[in-house]
Amino acid sequence: MQLLTIADIAKQANVSQSTARFYRDKYNEYFSYVGEGRARRYLVESIEAMEIIIDGYKQKQPSPMIENRLQERFGILEQKTTNSKQQTTAITNTANMAELEQAMRRTISSAVASSIQAEIQPLKYHMQMLNEKLDKQNEALNNHYNLVDERLRALREVRRESWWQRLFE
Questions:
Q1: Residue 97 CB: number of other CB atoms within 10 A?
Q2: Is the whole model's pTM more than 0.70, yes or no?
Q3: Rg of the chain's alpha carbons, rounded to an integer?
Q4: Which domain holds residue 155?
Q5: Does residue 50 contact residue 23 with C-beta atoms inside 8 Å?
Q6: Both 26 and 105 in a single domain?
Q7: How far apart are CA 7 and CA 14, in angstroms?
Q8: DSSP character string of 137-162
Q9: Same domain, residue pair 110 and 150
Q10: How do the pLDDT tens digits run along the chain, 169 residues long?
């Protein structure tokens, strides 16, 4: 589980630290953290929350709309506990949810990939059959061209002989 300072979040979200602190204070319930004061560290998901807030401000959205977007993405996190163990448990649960979401995405991706593989197999077989048929047709065509070429050469040889040589043969 990687933890970040508010400076790290500000740097990755490409805003000043003071702006990041303002947004954090205004939407504090959407930032998961451990510790207090200078020792406070945030989960990596806090970067995404910060980016949603920044995007909302850039689009001149009102605070309730930004809060709705945050709530849709994260739900409301309880951070105002005095017990450090409860904070750690809440953050761990949030981290586990993120890991679970990633695992679900991988599972869905592999299911889609296997479905696509199942569709590709018959197409590969059909393509192989068409290639074999094309090779046979090319071979037959080459044989035909060779035969025609042979007959044309024979006719040219016959024409090279004079008419009286052909007559007495």
A1: 13
A2: no
A3: 37
A4: 125-168
A5: yes
A6: yes
A7: 10
A8: HHHHHHHHHHHHHHHHHHHHHHHHS-
A9: no
A10: 688 999 999 999 999 999 999 999 999 888 888 888 888 899 888 899 999 999 999 999 999 999 898 888 877 654 444 455 555 565 556 666 777 777 777 788 777 777 788 888 888 888 999 999 999 999 999 999 999 999 888 888 777 777 677 677 6
